[in-house]
Amino acid sequence: MSVVEFLKRKIQTDGPMDIGAYMSFVLGHPEFGYYMTRDPLGKSGDFTTAPEVSQMFGEVLGAYVVHQWIKMGRSARFTLLECGPGRGTLMADMLRAGSVFPEFLQAVSVHLLETSPVLKMKQRHALGAANPVWHDDLSTVPDDAPLLVVANEFLDALPVRQFVRGLTNNQEKAWMERCVAYSDGEGFHYVTPVIPALGDQALVDEARFKAGVGEIVEVSPARAGFVQDLCALLKKTGGGALFIDYGHSKSAPGDTLQAIKGHEYCDVLEHIGDADLTAHVDFQALREVAERAGAEVSGPMEQGDFLKTMGIVERTEALKAAASEAQGLELDRELKRLSHKDEMGALFKVLGVSFSDLPSPSPSSPKS
Ligand code: SAH
């Protein structure tokens, strides 16, 4: 069976499916899901991410992680968790950058949150020497040591649901849910309005969006739940998390669900299971979740500004000093791709959360 066949049968049995369920089956069905069956990254895949563009991305994030570890009093033992580590490139680059501090490498315990068997293999290959521990969800991540978390292009893969501000037959405003239906004649197609159960309508915070009739809003209980669970864990362990993704700093109406295949956008209801599906991250909503959970939140700031603050320009110059002219030009191109406003620099945002009961710097660490 394929994911297409699975979806047809499910919709024929249960009726139209909400976009969140559609996304989670298409991407994450244990047997047929997009991520379960392939490595989607790189030139021969469907999309390219920042760590795959340049080693400098991971090196700069490595410097950030080392800085956080120093702020935690150079804790003699800590957990470094990456969510959705792809090919393991970012973690490998962070660890290499951290290796200038031998105590850092002794202290770090590498954990990976990953559901794709294909990508786990790649991660094992890239990171085997660091003895990573894999997790399917947060429930098994250790809570007995300070925790630092990095997630690049992870949240965008978690499902969103879409609601349309519609009018009922009595001309009253109501939230209708956009769903995916299937018929032999029409194939897969959207149906709205589907008036959801009252509890589901309550997922949409009216004041946040101020949407007019006909506008679509996206909400992501999956992302909010993830950030909330992670904050609960961080509250126990101390530490912090850095989320990097494309999205918007302020909640706003809009349909951002997109499909990409072979580096080209395609229709969300075409190439089902063979195209990546993502939606922009509403950073304001996640910021509020983290604040309610008691986190200190910084950002979201633009990726370009973050990388420059963390020294990516200096890193480029240092690498160029030992590079050929052609390599130097390539490094300049990579820097521009990651940080220029017209490329990844402004669309991508960085949100930091931390728990201020980080263990205070202890005079006995790191050598004791
Ligand atoms: N961070 C990497 C890869 C981004 S692609 C990079 O920047 O290159 C998204 C990653 O998240 C993949 O590793 C994918 O398998 C993983 N992923 C997607 N949904 C997930 C889920 N629900 N739980 C754990 N990992 C997930």
What report would you give on this structure?
With 368 residues, the protein is α/β, with parallel strands linked by helices. Helix content is 39%, strand content 24%. It is built from 15 helices and 16 strands. Strands 2, 3, 4, 5, 10, 14, 15 and 16 form an eight-stranded mixed beta sheet that branches. It is globular and about 65 Å long. The model is unreliable at 359-368 (pLDDT under 50).
Question: What structural keywords apply?
Answer:
368 residues, alpha/beta, eight-stranded mixed beta sheet, 15 helices, 24% strand, disordered C terminus, binds S-adenosyl-L-homocysteine
Low-confidence stretches: 359-368
Small-molecule binders here are: S-adenosyl-L-homocysteine
The secondary structure category is alpha/beta
* Nearest-integer average pLDDT: 93
Number of E strands: 16
* Estimated helix fraction: 25-40%
Q: What sort of overall outline do the alpha carbons produce when their principal axes are compared? A: globular
Q: Rg from C-alpha positions?
A: 22 Å
Amino-to-carboxy terminus distance: 57 Å
Strand content: 15-25%
Largest sheet: 8 strands, mixed
Number of alpha- plus pi-helical segments: 15
Helices and strands, with pairings:
Elements: H1 3-14, E1 17-18, H2 19-28, H3 50-53, H4 55-71, E2 78-83, H5 89-98, H6 102-107, E3 108-113, H7 117-127, E4 133-135, E5 147-152, E6 161-167, E7 173-183, E8 187-194, H8 198-201, H9 206-209, E9 216-219, H10 221-237, E10 239-248, E11 258-261, E12 264-266, E13 276-278, E14 281-282, H11 283-292, E15 296-302, H12 303-309, H13 312-321, H14 325-339, H15 341-347, E16 348-355
Parallel strand pairs: 2-3, 2-5, 3-4, 5-10, 10-14
Antiparallel strand pairs: 1-7, 6-7, 6-9, 7-8, 10-16, 11-12, 11-13, 15-16
Helix pairs in contact: 4-5, 10-11, 13-14, 14-15
The chain binds S-adenosyl-L-homocysteine.
